[in-house]
Amino acid sequence: DEYIRLQGVIRPIDISPANTISSQQVADARIAYGQTGALNDANSPGLLSRFFNLPWLPF
């Protein structure tokens, strides 16, 4: 599963009757994109990859 999270500060008066708001009316906006589940696990480096990428190893 993938997700997009939008966080910020809005004024209640800017919320439309359809319970929506324009992105131009969001102050201090923060946008996060991520994924969960098997697809996310497959994109994570394995144990050996993490070991060989340690900063103090000479190779």
Automatic annotation (TrEMBL):
InterPro entries: Flag_Lring
Location in or out of the cell: Bacterial flagellum; Cell outer membrane
Keyword hit for Transmembrane helix: no
GO molecular function: cytoskeletal motor activity
GO process annotations (BP): bacterial-type flagellum-dependent cell motility
Primary location class: other
One GO term describing the cellular component: cell outer membrane
Keywords annotated in UniProt: Bacterial flagellum, Cell outer membrane, Cell projection, Cilium, Flagellum, Membrane, Signal
PANTHER family: FLAGELLAR L-RING PROTEIN
Official protein name in the record: Flagellar L-ring protein
Organism: mine drainage metagenome
